[in-house]
Amino acid sequence: MEDLDPKRCTPEFEQGILFDLEWLGLDWDGPILRQSEQFLRYREILGDLRERGLTYGCSCTRRDIRMVSAPHPGEDLRYPGTCRDLGLGVGPEEQIHGQRLKVESCQVRIEDRVQRPLETNIAQESGDFLLWSRSDLPSYQLAVTLDDHYQGVTEVVRGRDLLSSTARQDRLRQHLGYPPISSVHFGMVLDGQGKRLAKRSGGSSIAGFREAGGQAAELVRWVAAVAGLADEGPEPVDYLGSYDLPPKEDWWPSEASPGPFPPL
Fold it and tell me: What is the pTM of this model?
């Protein structure tokens, strides 16, 4: 359970996620691992990386980085290395700084089971990336990498928007001596306006679909059709209104979106 942000990750959201999974017929093995309960383990491994000289302290804010990097729309925010040689956060009396992984320039190749192979240079794309924030929280990249290894995960399924994150995690995994993980990256599901589904924008949700009278089997059929696992789309139902699936050539793994989510 990715609950690193204490302000946004409430027990109500967690219960909603678990209920949605059960409703769709999905279950899980063993107790739920919550990232908010793993900080001691995260700190120990971060400390090992730091002792090996692979990290450094950083006092930069996102605003600082954005002012220097000036990314184009859709580009990742690249860290320019401002604090790399300043020696911040090396003593017990120092104020809390973020911690970044030192990234050397080299090509990283991701062999995805769906997408075309991706070659990326992390140093040029994102620069030294964050492992621990200035607000004393582990980063997404650190937490998921350690969790996957801790839980024995061998296959990861994500959205295509996280391909670049997978490259960073692969690099961190190499530093830690962890075995590689097989990955699958699917196209994003968008709403009727072409935007990704999000709670903050009131996007369609599994809970909304269920409350409108939708059945789990109908949603699973729709997903299978969009993913190219079925030749025909779901049967239209009155409470969903009419909608059309995009042409098959526009489904993943092309650059087009597989959406929109069935409108309510």
Answer: 0.79
